[in-house]
Amino acid sequence: MTYLFLQHYWCFIVALLGALLVFLMFVQGANSLIFTIGKTDDERRLVVNATGRKWEFTFTTLVTFGGAFFASYPLFYSTSFGGAYWLWMIILFSFVLQAVSYEFHSHSPKGGTRRMLFQRLLVLNGILGPLLLGGAVATFFTGSNFIVEKGNIIDSQLIISRWANASHGLDALLNPWNLVLGLAVFFLARVLGCLYIHNRVDDKQLNNHNQIIQPLWRSTILFLGLFLAFLAHILTCEGYAYDPSTGIIFMEPYKYLHNLLQMWPLLVVMIIGVVFVLFGILWSLTHKAWKRGFWVTGFGTVVTVLVLLLLTAWNNTAYYPSTADLQSSLTMQNSSSSEFTLRTMFYVSLLVPFVLAYIVYAWRSIDKKEITLEEINTDHAY
Hints:
Elements: H1 3-24, H2 26-31, H3 34-37, H4 41-52, H5 55-72, H6 74-83, H7 85-105, H8 113-142, E1 146-148, H9 151-154, E2 161-163, H10 176-200, H11 209-236, E3 238-242, E4 249-253, H12 255-262, H13 264-286, H14 293-311, H15 332-335, H16 339-349, H17 352-366, H18 373-376
Helix pairs in contact: 1-5, 1-14, 1-16, 5-6, 7-8, 8-10, 10-11, 10-14, 12-13, 13-14
């Protein structure tokens, strides 16, 4: 195991966690549709209880994603989480509101103002979470406004990276392509949310044509339009490349298209992922009794997002570009932990299959029964 192999390995692990996080955003997607899918208080309770059983998976994956970045690429962690803190604080605050809402939703009077408030807070998280996370991920392609000054270490200064303006991450929302990907992730989350409710909730009225299929159609059309526009943009724009022998970063026309063609196995995997996403959605739209669309589309989502994230880092690419100072852009080589740290974590990562096995066991235990009104009328309901 060379140092370069370990850097690529941990880049893959972080990208996989990011892809899983996008898939698990189905919780936010379903919550954003609480008042669209749920026409009555009981129907809204069904949606809340369906997502309430899975929200910890999403939040834990978000924390693990940040933790993996901190351990393997600490300079990115300090630059992004420390510099763009307003963007990340809004994301985290929306998740705090989500946790509070789940905790107190069932203790609020039926049809009361407090219950409606907690449901609206869940909707707020359902909108802000995917939108802002998608916008943050888009900066891996479009760049962020920061400066890295490693010479500060020699001068005994603690801060080696800083944001180049006072917005501290909010300026990412001014880039229209960041918003395009953010909205694409938002509507993808809504698609997955619709498919999840159809898969887990046993309620004839909630699963009728108007309340599930129509939102699924609308979200699918908007997601495909936005995603294809972003994909066309990144494949035709200049990308941030670097020379591994000198470490110099430069702009390369069609960089991300070159990455796909030069790493052709990733292209094949991406095509497979897109096919799974489209098949899962379209088959669910045309076959109302089929409930496996959530898993088919979910698998395609993980695979496609994984490839997109790897395009930003592999094949001599700067995965966190700087628009303020091109040479401050972060690559796997100039921002990773030491070889000793990466090697030690590699052996620890061998325990990951056992963790995944527990997650699968816990998920299956939670999903032994479909969710019904009778089941949620208990003391353990959300």
